[in-house]
């Protein structure tokens, strides 16, 4: 059995120039000894300046832990983080807490999933936005408050001057999320990490937030890591997509290549489970069977094997490596699979009439 994870560093699909963020063999382990659990397992990817990179997968696949490790926001006790996270040539994992605090908010920022728990409930919104400017740009309170109002206006919050005096509970979910985006962009960071920023919002507000992020990233040239389980978000926003399963990247491709020809059965399953308005009436959705708890350890074979319709004998005998896929399917595609898909599962999905339902 293969027990050693591949540490080969393959380039991202963006190409051209030095990456702004280069993650190599990032591994996060919770606990110690026999009870240790590896949540992120030798993850490597690059983000170019101005590029939007997606980290996609079900809950529990390691997306959010990856982002927290990059930002050094994981608890200092009870876990082990290894590998390198190079930001503009500097390894973030080697920095002290004080050095990292100087960079968070100024050079790289994060938008969290739940704005209500991310904002301080007893501090006015204006104070929370302004303190970022005071901390990293040395602004006095009055100009910081004025700039905070401009930021709230920029992200689409009506009557921003009045909102500065309000508390988070007085805002709608969409406004709270916009306020978080304003805080994250206050110092014009070079890298923004968005951890499922639309999960708690209704569909209309989701579309507005995604459009806002896309516009702000394009206007400022900020690089964006979008963490999501929603491939619909990926379709409208990301340049390159990394599909994670069991803490490892199982497929990497450009957005268009991934949707046109998914190669990993897990990617195909995610795509087949999404309802589409353009599909003919009666087409069945095909969910990915089982749950992430049905994994087998990567050092025993492919973690996805117990849930995979394409499983063959070698899948439980040898660990698949992340290697370049067929170049005719897209430049710099990477795949971790012994028996990849040869056709798009969406083209073969049965209708309710064909399935006898």
UniProtKB/TrEMBL annotation:
Keywords: ATP-binding, Cell membrane, Membrane, Nucleotide-binding, Transport. Residues 21-271 form the ABC transporter domain. It is a peripheral membrane protein. Transmembrane segments: none annotated. It comes from the Bacteria. GO terms for cellular component: plasma membrane. It is found in: Cell membrane. Belongs to the ABC transporter superfamily. This is Dipeptide/oligopeptide/nickel ABC transporter ATP-binding protein.
């Amino acid at each position: 059995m293969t027990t050693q994870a591949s540490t080969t560093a393959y380039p991202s699909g963006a190409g051209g120039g030095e990456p702004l963020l280069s993650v190599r063999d990032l591994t996060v382990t919770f606990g110690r000894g026999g009870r240790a659990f590896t949540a992120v397992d030798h993850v490597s990817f690059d983000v170019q300046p101005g590029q939007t990179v997606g980290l996609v997968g079900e809950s529990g696949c390691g997306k959010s832990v990856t982002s927290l490790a990059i930002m050094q926001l994981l608890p200092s006790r009870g876990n082990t983080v290894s590998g390198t996270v190079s930001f503009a040539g500097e390894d973030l994992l080697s920095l002290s807490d004080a050095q990292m605090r100087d960079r968070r908010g100024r050079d790289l920022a994060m938008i969290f999933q739940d704005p209500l728990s991310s904002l301080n409930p007893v501090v006015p919104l204006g104070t929370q936005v302004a303190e970022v400017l005071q901390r990293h740009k040395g602004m006095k309170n009055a100009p910081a408050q004025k700039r905070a109002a401009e930021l709230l206006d920029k992200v689409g919050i009506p009557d921003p001057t009045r909102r500065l005096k309000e508390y988070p509970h007085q805002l709608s979910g969409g406004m709270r999320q916009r306020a978080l985006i304003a805080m994250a962009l206050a110092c014009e960071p070079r890298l923004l990490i968005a951890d499922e920023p639309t999960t708690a919002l209704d569909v209309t507000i989701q579309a507005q937030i995604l459009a806002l992020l896309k516009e702000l990233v394009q206007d400022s040239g900020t690089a964006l890591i979008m963490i999501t389980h929603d491939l619909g978000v990926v379709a409208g926003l990301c340049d390159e997509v990394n599909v994670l399963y069991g803490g490892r990247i199982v497929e990497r491709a450009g957005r268009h290549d991934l949707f046109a020809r998914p190669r990993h059965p897990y990617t195909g399953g995610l795509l087949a489970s999404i309802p589409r308005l353009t599909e003919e009436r009666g087409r069945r959705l095909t969910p990915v069977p089982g749950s992430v708890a049905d994994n087998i350890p990567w050092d025993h074979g492919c973690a996805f094997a117990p849930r995979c319709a394409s499983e063959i004998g070698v899948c439980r005998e040898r660990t698949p490596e992340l290697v370049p896929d067929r170049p005719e399917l897209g430049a710099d595609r990477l795949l971790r699979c012994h028996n990849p898909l040869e056709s798009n599962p969406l083209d073969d999905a049965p209708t309710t009439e064909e399935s006898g339902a």
